[in-house]
Specification:
The protein is 24% helix and 30% strand. By secondary structure, it is α+β, with helices and mostly antiparallel strands. The chain has two domains: 159 residues, SCP2 sterol-binding domain (Nonspecific Lipid-transfer Protein, Chain A), CATH 3.30.1050; 135 residues, Aminopeptidase (3-Layer(aba) Sandwich), CATH 3.40.630.30. The protein has a nine-stranded mixed sheet, sandwiched between helices. Helix 5 links the parallel strand 7 and strand 8. It is globular, with a radius of gyration of 22 Å. The chain starts with 7 loop residues before the first strand and ends in a 12-residue tail after the last helix.
């Protein structure tokens, strides 16, 4: 979350057999999962979805979008900084060894990023015994002048048999714990010989890369919904994150599952910390935000503003601009993988 880590229930592999569709099984499973997570004291739940329209009915809101890039590398032109470290090829096993600790360094400063689920590293690096075509994966690392491994990338090259100089690089995962590592890895990938097109997915919406290439029209960027969040405990969730302005606001939250609804007063200080308490009714003179738990969940990571949701008719606010300043964050949320 903005400002630091928060405990969450990461939901995955939700499936109903085709032979048992339209029987209310999904609703029972999801409601049970959410109530169990709430009873365990977890303030939020999160998931990535195969279909966008399924989980809103359970209070999940789109919270971290993903940007998918296609870059014409020869047209792009590098104008970013010169990274002082070095980029080296390493084996997939070597990259896997450092990936978990490196991801933790990235995660704690990246709203939306979650701890790596078990088995994901083997999937990323093709290091499980049953991995298919793992030999096609290539791994590189960025090492700082002090010798610290501050970044790594996993990719594969798809050759063009009619013209090898028009090959495509498909980037699977890039981790950079420092700005130098970010610049060094991206420059290496963009300037690789025989590569005409670079594809990358699950990037953030405000990638510095956009400002590191000379011709921004060399990049085609599409945006999709990616990670969804569901608040289970309003006071616990809001006090776990940081806010953008000192103020006092009231929230009326509707929750059809009866898990996190109610009226709340949130007071934020100059450091961005909040105190939140449940009340019977909003006090006079305090700006009020009326919304569903789905919309509050979308606001949680800072991926959308209160002003935008008000203009879209998704929330009602006495003073959308003032309340938006409270919820605003410095950094756009992202999640670098599916789970």
């Amino acid at each position: 979350a903005p400002g630091g880590p928060v405990q969450a229930s990461a939901v995955s592999s939700v499936t109903v057999a085709p032979t048992h569709r339209r029987r209310g099984i999904l609703r029972s499973v999801m409601a049970g999962e959410l109530r169990t997570a709430a009873s365990l004291g977890l303030p939020v739940a999160a998931l990535t979805v195969s279909e966008s329209t399924i989980y809103g009915r359970f209070g999940f809101g789109a919270a971290a979008a993903a940007a998918n890039w296609e870059i014409r590398t020869r047209r792009a032109g590098w104008i970013g900084p010169e990274a002082p470290g070095r980029v080296d090829f390493v084996s997939r096993d070597q990259a896997r060894e450092v990936a978990e600790a490196l991801h933790e360094r990235v995660r704690v400063t990246s709203p939306g990023e979650i701890a790596l689920p078990g088995g994901h590293l083997n999937r990323f690096f093709g290091t499980s015994p049953d991995a298919e075509k793992a030999e096609r994966l290539r791994t590189i690392q960025y090492r700082s002048p002090a010798g610290e491994v501050d970044g790594l990338a996993v990719y594969r090259v798809v050759e063009n048999p009619d013209d090898f100089s028009e090959s495509t690089l498909e980037l699977s995962w890039l981790l950079a714990a420092t700005d130098d590592a970010y610049a060094g890895l991206w420059r290496f990938l963009l300037e690789m010989d025989l590569i005409a097109l670079l594809r990358a997915s699950e990037l953030g919406l405000d990638e510095p890369l956009w400002w590191m290439i000379a011709d921004q029209r060399a990049a085609k960027i599409t945006v999709t919904d990616h990670q969804y969040v569901r608040i289970l405990d309003v006071p616990a969730a809001l006090t776990s994150r940081r806010f953008g302005a000192a103020d006092t606001i009231a929230l009326e939250v509707d929750d059809s599952l009866g898990i996190a609804g109610g009226t709340f007063i949130a007071t934020t200080d100059a450091e961005g910390r909040a105190t939140v308490e449940a009340v019977d009714a909003p006090p006079a003179g305090v700006p009020l935000l009326r919304l569903g738990v789905r919309e509050l969940s979308s606001l949680f990571l800072g991926g959308v503003s209160v002003s935008t949701l008000a203009r879209a008719g998704r929330v009602e606010a006495d003073d959308p601009t003032r309340i938006a300043r409270v919820f605003q964050t410095v950094e756009s949320p992202r999640l670098s993988f599916w789970y």
